[in-house]
Specification:
The complex is a heterodimer. By secondary structure, chain A is mainly alpha-helical. Helix content of chain A is 58%, strand content 0%. Chain A has one domain. In chain A, 23% of the residues are buried. By secondary structure, chain B is mostly helical. Chain B has one domain. Chain B contains 6 helices and no strands. The chains are: A mainly alpha, B mainly alpha. The interface between A and B is medium-sized, with 14 and 11 residues.
């Protein structure tokens, strides 16, 4: 064993241990009345899709796995959550005006249709997030339906 | 000599077309909107945001050639996206403005577009 290998073997675990002392704030708020699920009645099939494929990064309620608590994975995950919530946060859905809601739903349709969402890296780990054709179809038809509902409510 | 005349004529014509920025058709945008709004869209946005535009990304975001045929929710989304881009000064792209400063939107133009889009999306919503 060279001096260098020995140094790395001791040094590396120490770095990992020290890294554990620095953790991002957890994305685990209680769901408020502004959450999408409180604003509209989402059909069971779509509810499942959203839970499995979207809500980890697009809400204030991430469903953490044990390894998400290990730094630097925790920071990597945290970065995705911050970015995802910046684009769209279902926990604050009720605070969005109807025109922006319709646009957001249209964006969701486009992203899912184009295979850009859920992210490939996310699908790799989360098997439930891999959407099949019938799941995509039910998501798209819910989107159309809900957009109509939003417009109807705006007219009242 | 006759041939030279034809070539000269063509040159003058293409120069005139280039100067006015039109290709012979007066109406580039068929979507119904006030003339003053249309002028801004045609001069500052249409170049990239139509079927003939070179960038696919530009067309995907907003396409004046097909906009009229979209359903109302897609119209709302397209216009709303355009509003955000203009409001956030992300469009026209900084790179383009760097090369062609005349492509930039003035403060007044930008406000005009944003205000009109807001009116248009609200009326679409209530249709």
């Amino acid at each position: 064993m060279t001096k260098k290998t020995r140094f790395l073997l001791i040094f590396f675990p120490i770095v990992i241990v020290i890294l554990q002392l620095f953790q991002p704030v957890k994305n685990e708020e209680a769901a408020s009345g502004n959450h999408l699920y409180h604003k509209t009645n989402v059909p069971e099939s779509v509810h499942t899709i959203l839970d499995h494929a979207c809500m980890d990064c697009h809400s204030n309620q991430t469903n953490y796995q044990w390894y998400h608590r290990i730094s630097p994975i925790s920071w990597y995950i945290n970065h995705h959550i911050t970015e995802g919530k910046g684009e769209l946060n279902f926990s604050e859905w009720g605070a969005i005006n109807p025109i922006d809601q319709i646009s957001a739903l249209e964006d969701i349709r486009k992203e899912v249709d184009a295979g850009k969402m859920p992210l490939k890296s996310y699908q790799l780990i989360h098997k439930d997030a891999r959407l099949n054709h019938s799941q995509t179809d039910s998501l798209v038809s819910w989107i159309k339906n809900y957009q109509g509902k939003i417009a109807d409510e705006a007219m009242r | 000599m006759k041939r030279l005349n034809v070539i000269l004529g063509l040159l003058v014509m293409s120069a005139a077309t280039y100067a006015t920025g039109t290709k012979g058709d007066d109406q580039k945008i068929t979507y119904s909107m006030p003339e003053q709004v249309k002028v801004v869209f045609e001069n500052k946005c249409f170049g990239c945001h139509n079927d003939e535009g070179r960038s696919d990304k530009a067309k995907e975001g907003l396409n004046f050639s097909t906009l009229k045929q979209l359903d109302k929710f897609k119209k709302i989304a397209s216009w709303n996206e355009a509003r955000k881009e203009v409001e956030g000064a992300k469009m026209p792209p900084a790179k383009l403005v760097e090369k062609h400063p005349e492509a930039a939107l003035t403060q007044e133009e930008s406000e005009l577009l944003v205000e009109w889009i807001k009116t248009e999306t609200s009326s679409l919503l209530k249709q």
